Amino acid sequence: MSSPAFRRNAFRALLTLHLIGLTLVIGVRFASFGIEHATSAGSLQFLSWGRELMGTLARSLTLPGFLLTIASGIGLVVVRYGKRVPRWVWAKVVLTTVGLVLAVKFVGPALEGARNWARWSAQHGQLAPQFADSLSQVSIYGSIVFALILLTIPVAVWKPVLSFGMHQNLTRKSGDTFT
To answer: Given pLDDT bands bounded at 50, 70 and 90, which one contains residue 171?
Structure first.
């Protein structure tokens, strides 16, 4: 079961799933920018509809994409390193954990608040003053989470590349190669 061919194929499959998860998270963020731009200048009903659409995208694509990224990332670490996890992986774990906590504790409730205030505004025919506060919180915390997600990419890509020579020496000694 732990043959080099199996590990290589498992790694490639997990890497593909990891990139799909990242694409979902980052792609929905850019789609949300477009939706925000398109719906903020329209009527209150259009604003409410845009907020509902962004909430649906967050629940149906961003959250599953983020969870897929985390699960496949754990799988990648286990397949690639086993029990000898490099320190840079722990940096990624910390960045991802902080991003997840911020998303759950701050971004999610602020998004829900913005949706509720947009819905209230559409029903009452005037923009609720609380909508701007909720939107501001979404913007601040969402940007922090997005920056943390983007920061994990260079940590994951450049650090292994920089330490590739050291890893190559270790794999030559152990006889286990799967690139």
So the answer is: low
pTM of the model: 0.73
Q: Under the phi-then-psi rule, with left for phi > 0, alpha for psi from -120 to 50, and beta for the rest, what region is 3? A: beta
Token pair of 70 as six digits: 């985390």
Tally the C-alpha atoms within 13 A of residue 20's C-alpha that lie toward its C-beta. 12
Please report, for the chain, the start and end positions of each structural domain, with discontinuous segments joined by +.
Answer: 4-174
Give the amino acid at 56.
Answer: T
What is the C-alpha separation between 86 and 140, in angstroms, rounded?
A: 32
Alpha-carbon distance 148 to 130, whole Å?
27
CA dist 28 → 71, 87, 118, 137 (Å): 19, 30, 20, 18
